[in-house]
Amino acid sequence: MPYIKPLPSSNYYAVIFSSTKEEDRLGYAEMDELMMKLAHEQDGFLGYESINNGNTGIFISYWENKGSIEKWRINTTHKMAKDQAKNWYKRYLSQICLVESSHEFVK
Amino acid sequence: MPYIKPLPSSNYYAVIFSSTKEEDRLGYAEMDELMMKLAHEQDGFLGYESINNGNTGIFISYWENKGSIEKWRINTTHKMAKDQAKNWYKRYLSQICLVESSHEFVK
Predict the structure, then answer these.
(1) CB contact under 8 A, B86 and A92
(2) What is the pTM for the complete model shown?
(3) Edge-to-edge, what's the strand order for the sheet holding B89-106?
(4) How many CB pairs under 8 A join A and B?
(5) Mean pLDDT (whole number) for A21-29
(6) Which residue, A88, A94, A52, A77, is CA-closest to B105?
């Protein structure tokens, strides 16, 4: 999974974005690529996990603190992307979460 | 997504389980089915979302409060399943999260 920094063991943030996309989503791929690039440049961005299957997907981004999520939330280009989200998605659920504890196992 | 109760708009819990499974995972499918059945019977279980693609997956369960997660954590049958997890998974990350805010869009 593409973490850019190791996740702490507690007290960081996860933004869970689960969605069902439209079949037809003109301009989505380019915007998605731009958003990934810009997110990686944000202070406090720790990395992400993403799984897609057909038109459904779960995308989770990880952040050092709530302030870094807030700064990204009000980023002008990110806002432009979100204005188009209702064209691209049939449904989404966006959840801002404080990760209270985390446990990793790697063989 | 299979919620058994509507998610509140804030202050509930998500357990994010992201994983890469082994190719060979004898007994996994039966145990997975049993765990889903038992989880649904737990007090405070709100529902789940799950996406798999090949051997990677993200499974998120939702809970009313931390007490309900703790009761499920120490459930004897659930503990038996977890004892076998290291045979079935190459890697997993389990995160217990307080959902501070949630926003849904449905077309």
Answers:
(1) no
(2) 0.94
(3) A45-53, A56-63, A12-21, A89-106, B89-106, B12-21, B56-63, B45-53
(4) 110
(5) 93
(6) A94
